[in-house]
Design brief:
single chain, about 140 residues, mainly beta, four-stranded antiparallel β-sheet, three-stranded antiparallel β-sheet, 1 helix, 7 strands, about 35% strand
Length: about 140
C-alpha cells in the first residue's frame, strides 16, 4: 500500500489522532477498515485524486498551469507516470522561467493498462482512465 505524505506539513502540525489510526488500526477498533487520508481533507496539499472501482482506474491531476503540449503520460511497469514541463521567456528577455512536476501512480492488479487513456478537461484537470480487465467468460454489460 502506498501512502502519500504532503511535501510540507501544516504549520499547526499533525495531531497523533490523524496520523496513528491508519498505521495501527487494531488499537482504535477500526481493524479491517481503510482510511483514505493520513491528513484531514482540509489539510491535504495534493492536487490529485486516485480512484479504483469495478468500472476502472481513474486519476485526476490538477494541471491548470500547463498546456496539453507540456504534459507526458506513460505506463512503466506497474505505474502510470505523469510529467509536466513548461518553460517561458520573461517579457524583457532577461531570462526564462521553468515549471515542472513528475508523479507516479501504482496501477492496481486487474486493470487493463494497455487500454489506458488520458485527456485534459477544459477546467485544466488531467483525467487518466483504464478499464478493468475482462475475465474470460464474462461479458461486458
Amino acid at each position: 500500500m502506498d501512502f502519500v505524505l504532503p511535501a510540507t506539513l501544516p504549520a499547526t502540525g499533525i495531531s497523533w489522532e490523524n496520523f496513528l489510526p491508519p498505521l495501527i488500526p487494531r488499537l482504535n477498533g477500526i481493524y479491517g477498515q481503510t482510511s483514505e487520508l493520513l491528513l484531514p481533507e482540509s489539510q491535504q496539499t495534493s492536487c490529485a485524486q486516485v480512484n479504483c472501482d469495478p468500472s476502472g482506474f481513474r486519476v485526476h491531476v490538477d494541471v491548470k498551469l500547463f498546456s496539453p503540449e507540456d504534459l507526458m503520460v506513460k505506463v512503466t511497469g506497474d505505474f502510470v507516470e505523469v510529467q509536466g514541463k513548461h518553460q517561458e521567456t520573461k517579457k524583457d528577455g532577461s531570462g526564462t522561467m521553468t515549471r515542472q512536476f513528475s508523479r507516479r501512480y501504482r496501477i492496481p492488479e486487474g486493470v487493463d493498462s494497455l487500454a489506458l487513456e488520458s485527456a485534459v478537461s477544459p477546467e485544466g484537470v488531467l483525467v487518466i482512465y483504464a478499464p478493468m480487465l475482462q475475465i474470460q467468460g464474462q461479458s461486458a454489460s
